[in-house]
Specification:
- The complex is a heterodimer.
- By secondary structure, chain A is an all-alpha fold.
- Helix content of chain A is about 80%, strand content about 0%.
- The longest helix of chain A has about 35 residues.
- The chains are: A mainly alpha, B alpha+beta.
- At the A-B interface, helix 9 and helix 10 of A face strand 6 and helix 2 of B.
């Protein structure tokens, strides 16, 4: 196919991006530079206001840090799940993949409310903990960061498992056999062969879970409650609550840049591994 | 270097079932210290299954595996001391050549200084010293194979398993690598099992060849015996090419038994045949064991040349015999030889010591 016709094929997507992504983004940036709610002279005052306030900076930091913790938990549980899926018999593989994808097939609101039932003071989890005598009084899971991390990790699990599974199932299984024949046990094989070779999948999974976790408005708000404020809720409060659209736009831009930096770093890390696989 | 005395491998009554399907059926095989035995057979004959059983990746349904008289069935692959060279070499793509060779030694916690000497030693052995810091994908197929072999031998395995090791190489390189691997195997005196579907590979490399079919060993013998004295029609047809002519066994006449072929010819089998008189048989003779001439010959099949195919070092004649079947005769070609022409009536007879062999149907 000639370059000209290839270019023409990308036109619909380019148009869609321009209308639905680039244009709103321009509006957002323009709005963030507006002096007051009704427009006016361009100013960087909103950015200065955000950076100047320690409270704002701590919300940004907490959000990014929450993403790191949720991503790590997701990876800790997601990698073994992907590993089991990849090595399972074909018949079981489709069942396991279905179970992994299942969370995506339910509405985020329904899913979050089910977690409230599980995590609550008299919820399922606390009844089990108390019943087994593991604690004297109910654990504080709902409206706590731990709760938010647990739920985010579960909800975003498919985003972690699927990229890792794709890479893992492409790895030549002879490599695992070769490792064992050379005397390595399962753990060494996992650590020295499977993990390094699935790095591109791990990094793709981390980028997806990270981006999804820090922007998960519903989960963060319903599980975290009103006292735990993360960036999405903060932006919502400024825009809808305080009706301060320019400030909301400014912190949105700051949030977006912060996320892009993290993603770029992960991406650069991933490229180092890709050349081998 | 430690002592390189080879280890004995003994498979006793190995059977492998997958549900109702029997992949390997009651295999008994003893391989002497330092011996190279080839498992030769078409795909699905059970040779790869046997390899996985020896290496411990697949627990066999029945039977036992012994190394030096000791059962190893309870040992997982990483404790068996079996080295495997895979068809695709299975070098770790994210490690350099040096790291690949060092991998097995690191598992054994060999001290750093000794590890380095050992890796250098192995690199020298396969003449790959200058490639130590490269990655596998930067090497050619033959070079990757040397590294795979070096990685295997570095940990001093008791048994070396070669799984279709030359399949991915082009023809010229394959011959070079076969010579090279044979040299290393001799030098190390390591007991080796070579799994292959390539008869030339098996015949050229092995001390003994075990021809397998449908989960059984059809015949195990030296390459010469397998080629010249096949015990079954399967072995005869699978190893080399052969002409097969149906016939009926007749009386003993002198040294060999008489057979009346379906094409009407009456021929005498090679010595040693003992088939029931009147039995349906398949008579087999290899194209290169026949000679052709226009004058009558003893013990010959007569026919008419249908096609002449000069194949370089030899000429292949396609000859129509009595009942409409064809036989092929391969004649070595000397400079200045004239070809026989199509349509010529000829006599084809075995060149001693080769002879007609017959197998019951």
């Amino acid at each position: 196919m000639s370059t000209a016709s290839t270019t023409r094929l990308t036109l619909p997507l380019t148009a869609l991006f321009a209308v639905c992504f680039v244009a709103p983004l321009c509006v957002l940036v323009a709005l963030s530079l507006a002096a007051g709610p009704d427009g006016g002279v361009a100013t960087i005052g909103h950015y200065a206001a955000f950076v100047g306030d320690r409270f704002n900076a701590s919300i940004l930091f907490d959000t990014l840090w929450l993403g790191v913790k949720a991503t790590l938990v997701c990876l800790l549980f997601g990698f073994p799940v992907a590993w089991i899926c990849a090595r399972a018999h074909v018949r079981w593989q489709s069942v396991l993949i279905f179970l992994v994808v299942l969370p995506i097939l339910t509405s985020v609101v329904v899913r979050t409310f089910s977690w409230i039932v599980i995590l609550g003071r008299h919820g399922l989890l606390n009844q089990i903990v108390l019943g087994l005598g593991l604690a004297d009084e109910p654990l504080r899971l709902l409206y706590s960061e731990a709760g938010v991390i647990i739920v985010l990790a579960q909800v975003q699990m498919p985003l972690m498992v699927l990229p890792i599974l794709t890479v893992l199932s492409r790895i030549d299984s002879n490599l695992f056999d070769a490792s064992q024949a050379l005397g390595a046990g399962q753990w060494r094989t996992l650590w020295r062969v499977a993990v390094p070779l699935s790095m591109p999948g791990i990094i793709a999974g981390c980028i997806l879970t990270y981006a999804a976790s820090i922007t998960a408005f519903v989960t963060q708000t319903l599980i975290g409650g009103a006292r735990l404020i993360y960036m999405p809720l903060f932006i919502y409060q400024q825009a809808v609550g305080a009706n301060n659209w320019p400030f909301a736009a400014a912190i949105s831009v700051i949030f977006m840049v912060a996320v892009l930096v993290v993603v770029a770093v992960l991406n650069g890390f991933g490229r180092r591994f890709e050349k081998h696989v | 270097m430690e002592s390189r005395r080879g280890h004995e491998l003994h498979l006793a009554g190995i059977t492998q079932r997958f549900g109702d399907y029997v992949a390997v059926r009651d295999i008994d095989l003893k391989i002497g210290a330092g011996e190279l035995v080839a498992l030769l057979g078409p795909s699905g004959c059970g040779k790869s299954t046997l390899l996985r059983i020896i290496s411990g990746f697949m627990p066999q349904t029945e039977g036992k595996v012994f190394f030096d008289g000791e059962a190893v069935d309870h040992l997982p692959p990483n404790k068996r001391g079996v080295g495997i060279v895979f068809q695709n070499y299975a070098l770790f793509p994210h490690m350099t050549i040096r790291q690949n060779i060092a991998y097995g030694l690191e598992v054994q916690r060999v001290p750093a200084a000794r590890l380095k000497t050992r890796v250098d030693e192995m690199l020298d052995l396969v003449h790959m010293g200058e490639f130590a810091e490269r990655y596998p994908r930067q090497l050619s197929g033959g070079q990757q194979q040397r590294i795979a072999l070096a990685r295997c031998l570095a940990v001093d395995p008791k048994i070396l398993l070669l799984d279709e090791p030359f399949g991915a190489l082009d023809k010229n390189l394959r011959l070079d690598m076969q010579i090279e691997v044979k040299r290393l195997q001799r030098e190390y005196g390591i007991t080796t099992v070579l799994v292959t579907h390539d008869q030339e590979e098996a015949l050229s490399m092995a001390d003994r060849v075990a021809v397998m079919s449908r989960g059984r060993i059809e015949q195990i013998a030296s390459p010469t015996d397998i080629y010249d004295r096949p015990e079954t029609l399967f072995v005869n047809q699978f190893v080399g090419s052969t002409n097969v002519l149906p016939g009926i066994a007749g009386e003993m006449a002198g040294a060999g038994q008489q057979v009346t072929l379906a094409c009407g010819e009456r021929i005498a089998l090679a010595e040693g045949s003992r088939l029931a008189t009147g039995a349906q048989v398949q008579v087999s003779i290899r194209p290169e064991h026949l000679t052709l001439q226009t004058a009558p010959l003893d013990n010959a099949i007569t026919g008419v040349i249908k096609a002449v195919m000069p194949l370089g070092p030899q000429v292949l004649y396609d000859i129509a015999v009595g009942d409409g079947t064809d036989i092929k005769v391969s004649v070595p070609r000397k400079r200045g030889d004239e070809f026989l022409l199509s349509g010529t009536r000829i006599f084809a007879a075995p060149v001693p010591p080769a002879g007609y062999r017959a197998f019951p149907v």
